[in-house]
Amino acid sequence: MFITPAFAQAAATGTAAAPGGADLLIQFAPILIMVVIFWFLIFRPQQKRMKAHQAMLAAVSRGDTVVTTGGLVGKVTKAVANEDLEVEIAQGTRVKISRSGVADVRSKSTPVNDNKPA
Fold first, then answer.
1. Best CA proximity match to 87, nearest among 57, 62, 56, 54
2. How far apart are CA 42 and CA 105, in angstroms?
3. How do residues 60-77 score in pLDDT, each as one tens digit?
4. Of 5, 11, 49, 84, which shows the fewest CB atoms inside 10 Å?
5. Is 35 in a helix, a strand, or coil?
6. What are the C-alpha distances in Å from 69 to residues 7, 33, 49?
7. Helical residues (DSSP H) of the chain, grouped into ranges
């Protein structure tokens, strides 16, 4: 009365329907595909950016112009490896910031002479 014909047929032959490996793979395939997509579109580029930022912070040297995470722009007057930076943000005004507080490094550039005759 409560038995289905497929179960009754398997019970009569003596074999039970066991879940196959292919069924399990088909169920987890969409999840695995999403993990791979997230890895290549989100996690991997983020790791590359983080490594590039760490390399930029390690390469900060005296005389570089930096932009802090707070938006201050200044010139590095003292840079000791693996320590804080001393940045001059105005004439005679120096602040001490941690390396992790640097958002961008603007390299030293030679000024352009706009008064040069053409």
1. 62
2. 25
3. 888 899 999 999 999 999
4. 5
5. helix
6. 67, 37, 16
7. 5-13, 21-38, 44-58
Q: Which residue is associated with the tokens 């490996």?
A: 21
Residue 75: strand pairing partners = 65, 88
Q: Does domain 59-106 match CATH 2.40.30?
A: no
Instruction: Compute how many other C-beta atoms are within 10 angstroms of the C-beta atom of residue 76.
Output: 19
Tokens 């398997």 -> residue: 10
Residue (of 115, 85, 82) closest to 97 by Cα position: 85
Whole-angstrom distance, CA of residue 66 vs CA of residue 90:
13
- Measure CA 27 to chain center: 30
For the stretch 24-55, pLDDT in tens is 888 889 999 999 998 889 989 999 999 999 99
